[in-house]
Design brief:
The structure holds two protein chains of two kinds.
Chain A: H1 7-14, H2 19-28, H3 33-44, H4 48-60, H5 63-89, E1 93-96, E2 102-110, E3 113-123, H6 126-135, H7 145-160, E4 174-177, E5 182-184, E6 192-195, E7 200-204, H8 206-213, E8 225-229, H9 232-245, H10 249-259
Parallel strand pairs in A: 2-8
Antiparallel strand pairs in A: 1-2, 2-3, 4-5, 6-7, 7-8
Chain B: H1 3-9, E1 23-30, E2 33-42, E3 45-54, H2 58-78, E4 83-89, H3 94-102, E5 106-111, E6 121-130
Parallel strand pairs in B: 3-4
Antiparallel strand pairs in B: 1-2, 2-3, 4-6, 5-6
The chains are: A alpha+beta, B alpha+beta.
Chain lengths: 282, 132
Amino acid sequence: MIQDNFSHFELLKTQGYSPEQAYLEAEQQGLDFFAQIRMLRAVYHLSLPEAKEVMMVAHHQPQASVQKADILKQHYQNLLETLELVEQNKTWEFSQDEASQWYWKSYSAAKGNFKTTTSTTRYASLDECLANATANGYDGGIVTEAEVQQVKQLFRHNQHGSPDEVVYEDGDWHNYDPDDGNFEKVDEDSNVFEIDREGTLTYWGKSWQLANQEEAELTTSDANRITLDFPPNLVKELSVEATQEGLSFPDYVLRVLVTRPIATPRHRSESPFISVKSAQSP
Amino acid sequence: MTKSEILKSLGVEDTATFDTGNSVWYSYQIRSAKVIGYIQSQGIYLTASIFSINSQNPQDGGPAFRRFYKASQKLATVINATKLEILAIAIINEDILEHVIDLGFTAKQVVIPEELGNNGTVECYSKIIDMR
């Protein structure tokens, strides 16, 4: 008598995994062919032909699609965790106090590595503040608590909303430079998500925008950002999809991030999404 | 060919034990066609089952099926099986079904083995070959 323990897959099922996703997970976990079939039949109550069809359908789906969904999910998690960390550490501040002096605390975040540095020094101007940060070699930047809260609020709004209620960016997209490969959304009221052609998703804090407005000498490497890289194979796949959709690569990727549910939502009603600012948000 | 060479041509894992009473699963690919199935030996009776042929190009299904068909017969010979039953389980691909029927397979209800989550029967195409 074969004794199976498919509790892990039962759990995945409750989290909204489709039979195809569970099957691919079983493959990844190294379950043998028989165990994969038994899992599908036991957990999803499929007949043998149905289980077989699931296997065939799962393999017909490009692996990259599943990988893509996982990566998008990872991006979402990384971004959210980073924002949580910022909140916990209370290391961000960038404001003008009553005496109209700038003070700052900064952080940098790239590829999941996070470090903080703080300063309570006050500066007479934004330029001076930023110049000091640059002079001290900080590769991080500055972000306000309000910004973090705003982004988190948007994430959470979308996380609990139905796909029809996802908040979309509705600002003017501009500054797309085909040669530079950057695409950015900059306006006075929203945060910025940028995708470059190498597949790096970057969140730019408002300080960067502000610095631009002030024409401060702030290079991109000095700006506040959260950077997440897409692997080359995903970039290639998304590029093809973008062409098919008649969109630029960055535009398409942003739309994917905004509109596509991340893989394996914990609950179907709580599919996490990534979104950016909308004038229609409540 | 030796038993291990035949099993290798079917993509049976090196670590799999193919003895009487044991089922081993196999998986191989010919061009776009990926084949999955299992083989079970019970003394002089060898059952070779093909569970799925998944091909993007229908033309690749035929050669993929023929490898299985020939390898099964070679295997029966080297292990001295006198009866070989080749089972095509729940065939979906119409192009493969054509091959199967051409080769003299007939429809048959088969009890689903425990390894596949025994629960009733499933329709297969079967061909029993006398190896003596």
